[in-house]
Amino acid sequence: MVEDATLRDLRDKQLLGRYRDRGDRAAYDELVHRFTPMVRSFARKYAGRGEELEDLVQVGMLGLVKAIEGFDLSRPHRFVAYAAPTITGEMKRHFRDHCWSVAVPRSMKELQTRVTAEEAVIERGGDVATTAELARRLETTEEQVVDARRAARCFRIDSLSFPSGEDRELLDTFGRPEKGYGHVEDVDLLDDALAVLSERDRKVVDMRYRDEMLQREIGAEVNVSQMQISRILENAAAQMRAHLEPGADRAVAA
Predict the structure, then answer these.
(1) Domain 106-154 belongs to what topology?
(2) Those residues with Cβ within 8 angstroms of residue 215's Cβ, 6 or more apart along the chain or in another chain
(3) Distance between CA atoms of 176 and 102, rounded to whole angstroms?
(4) How far apart are CA 84 and CA 80, in angstroms?
(5) Does the domain made of 2-98 have the CATH classification 3.40.50.1820?
(6) Fold of 196-253
(7) pLDDT tens digits, one per residue of 177-229
(8) Taking the model in full, what pTM does it have?
(9) Which of 36, 18, 38 is nearest to 28 (CA)?
(10) Confidence of residue 61 (pLDDT cuts 50, 70, 90)
(11) N or C: which end of the chain has fewer CB within 10 A?
């Protein structure tokens, strides 16, 4: 199990290196193929909130591309740990920028997009984006600019981002969690923690918690006493916890 996770991480970085260094499109395509199931899993989590599943998959794929382009190969971090928040962040950004909670005319949506872009241009120049200046630049009326700014408040994110206690967004309380992907995350987390153990200690942990063997049975298998097995398990848990800290949430999940 540990070997499989380690090989997977190494393969991800090998493919990233080939794409970055040589522009290897085959390596890029393989990376996309490897992470598409994860993108679809995240998309299913956010589906049913005003957007079609396949549209969310496409948004998630954009996040995956950004992760492939932005990951720093010089650092020891795992690519999957970088890609996951990049993908979900892209989906949340999509809800913020494109999903509306009330019906808004298409022409007003288009004007609102132009107003937002022009505001950014003006502010980057150090000026204040007044209604009059925006109307002049966009060749429209001040009343329409005001309406466009009001339309921006009709985005779905105004309600979905409303705090729901304990650092959660309302968006995160909708729908049912994707249990399959949660299991994959748990397995990845466990693989990461087990990697710090010696081969013998990993075997002992595996026999105790996967095979559900008794400590005396494990002792007979590896030719040590039951008391030694108890100490091995205690020390293994401490090593794994220390490896996962300071991410307390990850330690609890393990």
Answers:
(1) Arc Repressor Mutant, subunit A (1.10.10)
(2) 208, 226, 229, 230, 233
(3) 24
(4) 6
(5) no
(6) Arc Repressor Mutant, subunit A (1.10.10)
(7) 555 555 556 666 677 778 888 888 888 888 888 888 888 889 888 888 988 98
(8) 0.42
(9) 18
(10) very high
(11) N
